[in-house]
């Protein structure tokens, strides 16, 4: 391929990347009487995400849905990917930092309904984070004992480290050093979790720009260790 062709290809890839740029918003508030944290990721006209009860910190997936700006509905999914409840927000695009985002949670099994009230605490936009100094973007993947966050407050969207957070205490117990160029955030799904040979692994997947990184849990040492 000649130089012009390479330039056109690069421009096309850049345009595609920018056209599908994801933005994340983190909210804190309540579902009924329970304190929760909600993370919504927007890509073009679609939104999806997860939330967790602050007592347990186990992410609960929310199905991808079209955003119409006036009202947002997303299905809560169980571990098998089946819908179990619907979360409906009445003012999803208002500035939730100045006034709460309101809505309802409705169980499909018995139609039980609970109120939602959440306030915006952080926005992770392209090459910027609000408010300044916001530490980390929560991830949708977790293990039985740990959940994960990625610091994105500097160097745009590059993933430098992964924070391992204890579900029981909410405290950081380990920071995993990625140490690779070209590994950029894939939003709330940057971190993957898998079981390999009976061992729990946490990883960034390999792609065209990132060589990928795998960390494996060592029970004897009580920590994750890099495999590559």
Automatic annotation (TrEMBL):
Keywords (A to Z) from UniProt: Signal
Signal sequence, renumbered to the chain: 1-22
Protein name listed in UniProt: Lipoprotein
Source organism of the structure: Pseudomonas wadenswilerensis
């Amino acid at each position: 391929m000649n130089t012009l062709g390479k330039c056109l290809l690069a421009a096309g890839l850049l345009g595609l990347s920018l056209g599908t740029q994801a933005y994340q918003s983190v909210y804190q508030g309540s579902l009924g009487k329970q304190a929760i944290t909600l993370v919504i990721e927007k890509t073009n006209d679609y939104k999806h995400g997860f939330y967790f009860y602050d007592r347990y910190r186990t992410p609960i997936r929310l199905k991808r849905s079209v955003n119409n700006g006036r009202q947002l509905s997303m299905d809560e999914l169980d571990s098998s990917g089946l819908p179990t409840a619907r979360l409906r927000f009445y003012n999803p695009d208002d500035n939730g930092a100045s006034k709460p985002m309101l809505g309802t949670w409705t169980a499909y099994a018995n139609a039980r309904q609970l109120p939602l009230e959440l306030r915006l605490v952080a926005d992770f936009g392209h090459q910027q984070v609000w408010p300044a100094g916001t530490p980390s973007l929560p991830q949708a993947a977790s293990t039985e004992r740990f959940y994960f966050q990625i610091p994105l407050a500097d160097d745009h969207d590059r993933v430098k480290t992964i924070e391992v957070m204890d579900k029981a205490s909410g405290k950081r117990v380990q920071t995993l050093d990625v140490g690779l160029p070209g590994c950029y955030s894939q939003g709330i799904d940057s971190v993957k979790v898998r079981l390999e040979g009976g061992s729990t692994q946490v990883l960034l997947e390999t792609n065209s720009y990132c060589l990928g990184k795998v960390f494996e849990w060592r029970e004897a040492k009580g920590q994750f260790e890099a495999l590559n």
